[in-house]
UniProtKB/TrEMBL annotation:
This is Phage integrase family protein. InterPro entries: DNA_brk_join_enz (IPR011010), Integrase-like_cat_sf (IPR013762), Integrase_catalytic (IPR002104). Keywords: DNA recombination. Residues 280-433 form the Tyr recombinase domain. GO terms for biological process: DNA integration; DNA recombination. SUPFAM superfamilies: DNA breaking-rejoining enzymes. One of its GO terms (molecular function) is DNA binding.
Length: 447
């Protein structure tokens, strides 16, 4: 018994003749690579139908999937083998360049405005809403430069998509838009408006053309955009050396046309009971200094009561991302404003919008969509009937009145924060009216 081993000895099985005759494919054999490549199906990238073949490979401590850009198995095996050799000998970057050759260079002279815009959009350097506005300003300015006009259904067909006028503008070659052409157009526009009898016409024309150029040239910024562009551009860009007309800060100074308390009395008398949505917009814009889109997308959960009033929070949501980081803020409103606003709530839930509307919000659109657009326009008409006739944006004047009141009571810095501005200079230039200064202490004795 002692001579019996505890564990029996297991002899390895001999291979059959078929297994011995079958050779393992060598790495140089395309059959081995044909087994390694996999199609880009749902198990990989979520596609329901088979796509191009891809190779999963690990070389030099890097493991990744490499797309082979073909759905032919034999060609995919050949490309996988070639990529493996190139990566082993020359490294990943050289292998990728050989596998993915650079697209043929497009002639600089034939690069159109549409192609440039599409490339900028693909880079995601500018917020889609902002890029939409910049693109519109470019079209308006460049149409003026080349004398391209449009009206009626040619410019506004009443449907989604790009209009014939937009297509005609964006088919312009980038090489046609020279700095000299833009500067000449600016001067010509200013001269045409300066012939009017209205002394302020030339001043408004200067602000208009400067705003167009300021927005359009942002898409061609050599500091923020051009370093990331991957297509070949003309050596001279459209706005190289183009200067804006000189503007004085006094030209933008907010002029108070009516006292806020007078507007409040009118609103209580004419809007509170008859037009509750317009009255709610009035309270939000004057009492909290909200922008149009901020008021349009405000939810009841963002309006909270506190000890001595309430807080209105401008938060990031699916429909309201904020104009900038500074615009996401909390604003205190008076108790009287909160009581009036809360009386309009009714049975609305916390997730409901403060301003009711039959129009649903739209999340994935590049243009500015307002649920209560008709109510905003109606309130603008009402404000103009009360004396706000000189300001072209009557609804925005309520926000300026709010900023001016905060500036006078708490200072320019508090007004900047309450308005959601990134720079104090913006608040000082556009939202603060001239302060009431006491008269000089001189006296004249009447004879």
């Amino acid at each position: 018994m002692n001579n019996i081993l505890k564990y029996p000895i297991v002899h390895p099985l001999k291979k059959s003749g078929q297994k011995v005759a079958k050779k393992k494919p060598r790495p140089s054999d395309l059959k081995s690579w044909a087994k390694r490549v996999k199609q880009n199906t749902k198990s990989y990238y979520g596609k329901n139908s088979p796509g191009d073949y891809m190779l999963r490979v690990k070389i030099g401590g890097r493991r990744k999937f490499v797309g082979l850009m073909t759905n032919d198995l034999s060609e995919a095996a050949r490309r996988a083998q070639q990529f493996h050799w190139d990566a082993k000998s020359s490294g990943w970057d050289a292998a990728m360049k050989r596998l993915l050759p650079a697209p043929p260079k497009k002639d600089i002279e034939s690069l159109t405005l549409e192609e440039y815009f599409n490339h900028i959009e693909s880079l995601s350097l500018i917020d889609p809403h902002t890029l939409f506005e910049y693109r519109a300003k470019c079209r308006t300015l460049f149409a003026r430069c080349l004398g391209i006009t449009g009206k009626g259904s040619d410019k506004w067909p009443g449907a989604e998509g790009r209009t014939p006028w937009q297509k005609r503008i964006e088919s312009i070659r980038l090489s046609q838009l020279t700095p000299e052409l833009i500067s000449t157009t600016m001067c010509r526009y200013l001269e045409s408006r300066g012939k009017s009898d209205d002394p302020l016409a030339k001043l408004r024309a200067k602000h208009t053309i400067n705003a167009l150029v300021r927005g359009a040239r942002s898409v061609f910024s050599r500091r923020r955009i051009i370093p990331y562009v991957k297509i070949q551009l003309p050596a001279v860009l459209p706005f190289d050396g183009v200067r804006l007309f000189k503007e004085d800060d006094a030209e933008f100074r907010f002029v108070k046309e009516i006292e806020p308390q007078v507007l409040i009395d009118f609103a209580l008398e004419e809007l509170a009971g008859r037009k509750p949505i317009m009255f709610a917009i009035f309270l939000l814009c004057l009492g909290a200094g909200l922008r149009r889109n901020e008021a349009d997308k405000l939810r009841w959960m963002d309006v909270r009561a506190v000890a001595d009033g309430a807080i209105v929070e401008v938060a990031r949501t699916a429909y309201q991302k904020g104009k900038s980081k500074a615009s996401l803020r909390k604003v205190r409103i008076p108790q009287s404003f909160y009581n009036l606003l809360h009386n309009l709530r009714g049975n609305a839930a916390d997730g409901d919008f403060v301003l009711p509307s039959n129009s649903a919000p739209r999340a994935n659109v590049t243009y500015r969509h307002y649920r209560c657009d008709s109510q905003f326009k109606a309130l603008c008409g009402w404000l103009k009937s009360k004396g706000l006739v000189h300001d072209t944006k009557a609804l925005h004047t309520l926000r300026k009145l709010f900023g001016d009141a905060i500036c006078n009571s708490q200072g320019i810095y508090s007004a900047c924060k309450a308005l959601g501005h990134q720079k104090v200079s913006t608040t000082e230039r556009h939202y603060a009216a001239l302060p009431n200064v006491d008269p000089v202490p001189f006296h004249i004795n009447a004879q």
